[in-house]
Amino acid sequence: MDVPRPSQTRKRRIRYAVYALLGIVSVVLTTVGLSRLKPAAPSVEKSTVWPDKVKRGQMLRQVRGNGTLVPEEIRQIASPVEGRVERVVALPGVEVTAGMVLIELSNPQLQQAAVDTEYQVKAGEAD
After folding, report:
1. I need a surface site. Which of 11, 16, 22, 41 has the fewest CB within 10 A?
2. Separation in Å, CA 123 to CA 118, 126, 127
3. Contact 96/90 with Cβ under 8 angstroms?
4. Average pLDDT in the 91-110 region?
């Protein structure tokens, strides 16, 4: 004849409840721990990377970009006479002062007029 043992079933239910509670706590702790991790570094194809040793010195980077380079500020310089730009003395980005030559202009008409004036002066002196 079977004898009911109520203490064994109660212990078994308590044990299952403890296992279930431990399982739920471990899932919650794992979820919280994983949510606080920083994202992993992105993967890169090996063909795009140049592996090398770390060295001291200058790090030069060449960067290319499509587009148009537009100055932030444009200043126009007027000349009292017309002319053709022969030489640029002051390059962009150089600090300039008053009286500094920025560009050299040439005007063939003014040069011819100067030569004619010299000949007239010499002719006047010869007379």
Report:
1. 41
2. 9, 5, 6
3. yes
4. 87
